[in-house]
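yo, 2-keto-3-deoxygluconate kinase is done. seq:
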Amino acid sequence: MDVVTLGETMVLFVPTETGPLKYIYQFNKHIGGAESNVAIGLSKLGVKAGWISKLGKDGFGDYIESFIRGEGVDVSQVKRDEEHPTGVFFKERVEIGESRIYYYRKGSAASFMDENDLDEQYIAQAKYLHITGITPGLSESCFRAVYKAIEIAKKHNLKIVFDPNIRFKVWNDKEQMKKIILDIASKSDILLPGLSEAKILLELSDEIDILNRFLDLGPEIVVLKVGEDGAYLGTREEITHISGYKVERIVDPIGAGDAFAAGFLAGLINGYTLKDAVRLANAAGAFALTVKGDVEGLPTWGDLEAFFGNNDGFTR
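structure:
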């Protein structure tokens, strides 16, 4: 396995029409979960990825496990819970402003994941551990699971990749959220924050100040995502801005950050330089904006080749 990740994936119901959920009667069924999105994105780019989680022993759990397995991700470490259901959430589509999300995940099977659900040898054989700031906010047991995974990764010399992925709705206390996410950031090797997240966590606005503060915490590499402007790559040696790719028509912004993470890790695993890995990440994130759906927009090498006219050497 190249990359192992852990976290909750839920069934996502997306209305067929825009407007308040009160007046919506038809939905399409999808899956949604940052960590499994990254695993699927990696698989589409030829990287061996494994996803650790818990699902209810129900039809929705069957659907999620089957879907993720079908995308080439190893799901051998997914456990099924007979007592607690698979989580679900709904998207409310609007013509003006951002879509709203309504979670029904309290008491879900994944929220009962704990440190005993982790197989040390399974994690140990990977090269990277990918985690997000969502999972430790789900419950005390999930918090323990994340820290145990970090402990295992450090013991076996895996690189820890951390995307803060702030979700206020999963945290009861904003200050506790900041404290925990910054602590995990300090234990990570690679940090992938978005600019808006960084402003919340550090209460800074300048990109260079943000990068330097994050680097002071401990990560070797910080990649600060700044939307269509691309990303800033920060290391102990230098800070560089890597231009992004302008997307004329954004179809769906959900999943772009996960595509970015998958692209960046795929680049590193394929031997790209850090700068080229960020360029690949920018390309993957831009492509994801052009397709509707959380995972449907995650690109293959062929997608990137077609989208960018094979001018950037991404398929070398």
